From TrEMBL:
PANTHER family: WAT1-RELATED PROTEIN (PTHR31218). Belongs to the drug/metabolite transporter (DMT) superfamily. Plant drug/metabolite exporter (P-DME) (TC 2.A.7.4) family. One of its GO terms (molecular function) is transmembrane transporter activity. This is WAT1-related protein.
């Protein structure tokens, strides 16, 4: 029975992050589709966050109907800071996708484990022991991942497969499109802010384990933060009008699936398995995003995206391998120290 419970305990975070990556890939394609159709990206963020918080509020009241966990000023401040990371990452991601493509966005997101590892070192959540090959692999994997991100941004190359015939060049060329490079820079900023969110989320979840409450206040504060920003950035009142068209469908998907469901799953998985475990699922998004972009947007998949993605994934798994080796060492040390007093008592 214990083995079955432990098996599900490891499998559920895996399935949860897999579902979160699927919803995130769908979100990138939907965002690009909506902005191509003329919808304002900042308005989309505000409406999605507002709808998400409205939908989640009844669940929070129902799950904590007997007793709501104590909301202190420091807790609300932590939720506000989490929302600020999430809001900033959302805006950076939307701008980056508009300037480039969902495929580039999905590839760049794979540097999140590298950024997460660097931030974990800064905040002393991780340690580097240069004598051990596992630590060397984590550092080298971080450098390789970041290098792969630059390859994806700066080099496009010819399409590996084409979904339409508008691309006529067969030469291996570096990307000369300013929008593509600028979009990549915004997407790197999104990845960095997402890593900050992972690190801080792990700390907040330990102090305040009510996942739905954390997510609700993130949505609420994100709505306020993005709303203030959008009111400054969007001066045309007509861009705030909602109609029963594809734009409304996009907002519903973003609010219910891509925002509420994904954030709830990710927050729960961070609480159960840790920030680095969750960050390690980012390469799965490449497969989902490339397929969806080709089917729904007719987007070509270039050689540069493939080469850069492979480099990033190699670095990604180097970090993953090093982290798993160090976790095994820690578990072995803890088990040996736990058994030592028993052996001494017997002797």
């Amino acid at each position: 029975m214990a083995t079955w419970v432990n098996g599900w305990g490891k499998l559920l975070p895996f399935l949860g992050m897999l579902m979160a990556m699927l919803t995130q890939s769908g979100s990138m394609v939907v965002i690009k589709f909506a902005m191509t159709d003329g919808m304002n990206k900042y308005v989309m963020v505000v409406y999605s966050m507002a709808l998400s918080s409205s939908i989640l509020l009844p669940f929070v009241l129902f799950l904590h109907r007997s007793e709501l966990p104590l909301l202190t000023v420091p807790a609300l401040g932590s939720f506000f800071l989490l929302a600020l990371f999430a809001s900033s990452a959302h805006i950076m991601a939307y701008v980056g996708i508009e300037l480039s493509s969902p495929t580039l966005a999905s590839a760049i997101l794979n540097v999140i484990p590298a950024f997460t590892f660097v931030l974990a070192l800064i905040f002393r959540m991780e340690e580097v022991h240069w004598r051990y090959f596992s630590s060397q692999a984590k550092v080298l994997g971080t450098i390789v991942s970041i290098g792969g991100a630059f390859v994806v941004i700066l080099y496009k190359g010819p399409p590996i497969f084409r979904t339409h015939s508008s691309y006529t060049s067969n030469k291996l060329q570096f990307s000369a499109q300013p929008n593509w490079i600028l979009g990549g820079i915004f997407l790197v900023a999104d990845s960095f802010l997402s890593s900050m969110w992972y690190i801080y989320q792990a700390s907040v979840a330990k102090k305040y384990p009510a996942v739905t409450v954390i997510v609700f206040f993130q949505f609420l504060f994100s709505t306020i933060q993005c709303g203030v920003f959008a009111l400054i950035a969007v001066r045309d009142p007509t861009e705030w009008e909602l109609k029963f068209d594809r734009g409304l469908s996009v907002i519903l998907y973003q609010a219910i699936v891509a925002t509420m469901l994904r954030y709830t799953l990710t927050t729960w998985c961070v609480h159960r398995a840790g920030p680095l475990f969750c960050a390690m699922f980012k390469p799965v998004g490449i497969i989902f995003t490339v397929s969806m972009s080709a089917i729904f947007l007719g987007e070509n998949f270039g050689l540069g995206s493939l080469i850069g993605a492979v480099i990033i994934v190699i670095g990604f798994y180097a970090v993953l391998w090093g982290n798993s080796r160090e976790e095994n060492k820690i578990e072995n040390l803890e088990s040996s120290s736990h058994n030592a007093p028993l052996l001494q008592d017997r002797s």
